């Protein structure tokens, strides 16, 4: 089966910094794949390359078997990619439900929509969009807060609203860039459980995550990068024990790959 996502020697430099350096990996379909690495490793750049906000200097990215390396974000979205950002991006002054509704307008031709605005067809369409938004909030466990101003919700709840908005595009692959940033362990675990629920409903997920416990508890497999390069991949528990990963996260205190004791 074609993998949901494949990077083949993807490379992206900013000036003198190669943020993503000949990175190749495959994210299997129907799984939660973790993307780990210390600060500045290149994780967000990978997410931006996949979603078309940035383009590779060389190499190739395929979504569901289609080369998207040179495509614009809305084309990649139409092929089934949705994402959230490292910082929660909600619109101030809107309720949870309105955030999700707004998401579905943003990706449509609003001028066309405006010309229909006062017609029965438009009202019918609007009702359908609100119903779908409510259903999406329900999928992420937030239907009870549909009419609450999103900015008054906790980070964990805001993130779930944001995920509901992303799901409005009916994605096949969801990219989550540090979805648990700023959350306490209980809220983080809830996001982890949500990724499992969505996976079990058929979605594939690539999730940037710093927290090793969450990676172990919720990722089916993990990709670890440092300085733009892949340093480990595979089962989370094994990757976390990998000497290269230990070194990238904690410094040269452990045995390195050659089995030599390095100096602290
Ligand atoms: N738009 C940009 N312009 C210039 N340099 C950038 C840009 N985006 C990222 N970089 C650089 O690329 C490298 C990788 O950054 P990136 O944000 O992808 O890392 P990250 O793994 O997401 O880090 P963090 O864990 O802090 O979110 C860093 O050296 C960063 O300074
Ligand atoms: Mg980042």
Q: Kindly name the structural category.
A: alpha/beta
CATH class identity of the domain at 89-170:
Alpha Beta
The major beta sheet can be summarized as:
6 strands, mixed
Please give the share of residues in helix.
Answer: 25-40%
Cofactors and ligands: adenosine-5'-triphosphate, magnesium ion
Shape designation: globular
Number of helices: 10
State the end-to-end CA separation: 45 Å
CATH topology-level name of the domain at 89-170: Rossmann fold
Mean pLDDT: 90
Strand order in the sheet with the most strands: 6-7-8-3-9-10
- Poorly predicted regions are 254-264
Structural description of this entry:
It is a single chain. By secondary structure, this protein is α/β, with parallel strands linked by helices. It starts with a strand and ends in a 14-residue tail after the last helix. The chain has a 6-stranded mixed sheet, sandwiched between helices. The chain has a 4-stranded antiparallel sheet with strand order 2-1-4-5, with helices on one face. The model is unreliable at 254-264 (pLDDT under 50). It has a domain at 89-170: Rossmann fold, CATH 3.40.50. It has helices at 43-51, 73-78, 96-106, 110-115, 120-139, 155-167, 185-200, 212-218, 236-241, 243-250; strands spanning 5-14, 17-27, 32-36, 58-63, 66-67, 81-84, 173-177, 204-208, 221-226, 229-234.
